[in-house]
Amino acid sequence: MDRLRITGGAALEGEVRISGAKNAALPILCASLLTAEPITLHNVPNLNDIGTTIRLLGQLGVKTHNDSEHTLTLSADSIDSLEAPYDLVKTMRASILVLGPLLARFGQARVSLPGGCAIGQRPVDQHIMGLEALGADIHIEHGYVVAKATRLKGAVIRTDMVTVTGTENLMMAATLAEGTTVLENAAREPEVVDLAEMLIKMGARISGHGTDRIVIEGVKSLRGTEYHIVPDRIEAGSFLCAVAATGGDITLTHAKPSTMGAILSKLEQAGLNMTVSDHSIRAIMKKPPLAIDIRTVEYPGFPTDMQAQFMAMNALAEGTAVMVETIFENRFMHVQELIRLGADIDIDGHTAVVRGVSQLSGATVMATDLRASASLVIAGLAAEGVTTVERIYHLDRGYEKMEHKLRLLGAQIERVSSKGVQ
Ligand code: UD1
C-alpha cells in the first residue's frame, strides 16, 4: 500500500493548477446515461473515484474514450445492464447517482445499497423517497435498491434534510419525467449548479438551481453535448490551508473563487493575505495563522469537506478554535492522528476544541478518509521532521497528483509504494 513521506518545515512557494471538481464530475459522468448521444467532458480530474465511475458506467454498457488526459467522451447509445453491483458501490457511495438516470431513461434499475461509511451512517432514504414521489415502485431486495417505473411523473418533493447527491439524483431523474418537478429544500452547492448547467446543455429545462427550490420541466429526450467541469473548490481550499499552515507565497490558477466565499472569508480571518481574481488566487502567509472558529453547514455556509484541513491549520494557530461538525456524525477521525503529531485537541460530541501549539512534530499517521488524509498531509508539511501518512488510497480518491503539485511548490514529499520511492 502506498504512503507519503513528508519532511516538514518548508514554506510553500510557486504556482499550482487546480483540477476539475470531483463532486461535479461524478454526477456529470452519470448524466451521460440520460442520452443515447455522445457527451464530451473537459477538465475531468484524473482520480480514482473517476476511474471507479467509468468502470461502473462501462459495466452498464457506456463506452468511454479518453480524448486526452482530462477530456473524455462517453456514449450510452446501447446499454447492456441496469445493475450497479455491490463490489463497486461499496468502494464509492456516489455510485448511487446512476439510480435516477437509469430509472428515468430505461424504466428500471438495480443499485446496491452503499452500506456503512467511515464518516457516518449516510443513508439514501431521501433518494428513494423522492423517486417514489416521482412514481417509481421501489423495494429493497438482497441489499439492492430495485426500482421500476413506466414513465416518471413530475411531483413536488421536499427532502427532510439538504442532500447534495440526493438533489442531483432527483434532478437527473426529473429531466425525463412527464410534467413539472419542484425540488424544495434543494442543495445549493456549486457542484449541483454545475450538473444543472450541463443538463440544460443536454436540453433539460431547469431553473432555480443555486437556490433551495429547483424547478424541472420534464422533456421526452436529451441530447449529447460538450461541457467543461467547474474547478474543485475543496482542492483549492486545501492548498490555501497548506500555505496558511506552512507560510509562503502561492498562486492557484484555474480556480473559481466565486464558489469559495465561506472558505476564503475564514482564511482571511486566519490572516492569509489573498489577492483574488476571476480564476486565480495569490495567497501569502508570513506569520502563524490565527485560530478560527468553524461550524460546518450546507452551502453557502462553511463546507464539511474543509473541516479537517482547517483543523490542521488551527492546530498551529495562535489561540483556541471551536469547530462544530453538523453534517456528519463521525467526522473527527483525523483528531487522534493530529494529536500524534503534537496537536492539542479535545472532542465533545460534535465539537472539537483546538488549542494552537507553536510546533507539530513528525510521526507516522494513518489516513482514515479522503479529507482527513489532506488534513494529515497539511499537518505533515508544517511539522518539524518526517511525517509518514499511511493508507493514502483515500487521498488518491479525490486529489489529483497531490504530492506532485506540492513538490512543485517546494514541499519535500514523496510517495513510497511497496515497490519503493516513486
Ligand atoms: C456530498 C459530497 C460530500 C460532502 C457532502 C456534504 C459528493 C459525491 N459528495 O455527499 O463530499 O461531504 O455532500 O456536503 O458530492 N442524508 C440522509 N439521507 C439521505 C441523504 C443524506 O440522512 O438520503 C444525510 C447524510 O447522512 C448527511 C446529510 O444528510 O448527514 C448530508 O448528506 P449529503 O448531502 O447527502 O451527502 P452526500 O451527497 O453523500
What would your notes on this structure say?
Helix content is 32%, strand content 26%. The chain has helices at residues 22-31, 48-60, 86-89, 99-106, 125-133, 164-175, 190-201, 233-246, 261-269, 307-315, 334-340, 370-382, 393-398, 402-408, and strands at residues 3-7, 12-17, 39-42, 63-68, 71-75, 83-84, 108-112, 137-141, 144-148, 156-158, 180-184, 205-207, 213-217, 225-228, 248-253, 273-276, 281-285, 294-295, 320-324, 344-348, 351-355, 364-366, 386-390, 412-417, 420-421. It has 422 residues and is of the alpha+beta class. The model has no long low-confidence stretch (mean pLDDT 96). The radius of gyration is 21 Å and the shape is globular. Bound molecules: uridine-diphosphate-N-acetylglucosamine. Uridine-diphosphate-N-acetylglucosamine binds at residues 23, 26, 93-94, 120-127, 161, 163-166, 191, 303-305, 327-328.
Question: Descriptors for this entry?
Answer:
binds uridine-diphosphate-N-acetylglucosamine, 422 residues, 25 strands
Approximate strand percentage: 25-35%
- What's the Cα radius of gyration? 21 Å
Number of helices: 14
Q: Characterize the quaternary organization of these chains.
A: single chain
Basic shape: globular
Short description:
With 422 residues, the chain is α+β, with helices and mostly antiparallel strands.
In terms of topology, how is this protein built?
Layout: E1 3-7, E2 12-17, H1 22-31, E3 39-42, H2 48-60, E4 63-68, E5 71-75, E6 83-84, H3 86-89, H4 99-106, E7 108-112, H5 125-133, E8 137-141, E9 144-148, E10 156-158, H6 164-175, E11 180-184, H7 190-201, E12 205-207, E13 213-217, E14 225-228, H8 233-246, E15 248-253, H9 261-269, E16 273-276, E17 281-285, E18 294-295, H10 307-315, E19 320-324, H11 334-340, E20 344-348, E21 351-355, E22 364-366, H12 370-382, E23 386-390, H13 393-398, H14 402-408, E24 412-417, E25 420-421
Parallel strand pairs: 2-15, 3-14, 6-7, 10-11, 18-19, 22-23
Antiparallel strand pairs: 1-23, 1-24, 3-5, 4-5, 7-9, 8-9, 11-13, 12-13, 15-17, 16-17, 19-21, 20-21, 24-25
Helix pairs in contact: 1-2, 1-7, 4-6, 5-6, 6-7, 8-10, 8-12, 10-12
The structure holds uridine-diphosphate-N-acetylglucosamine.
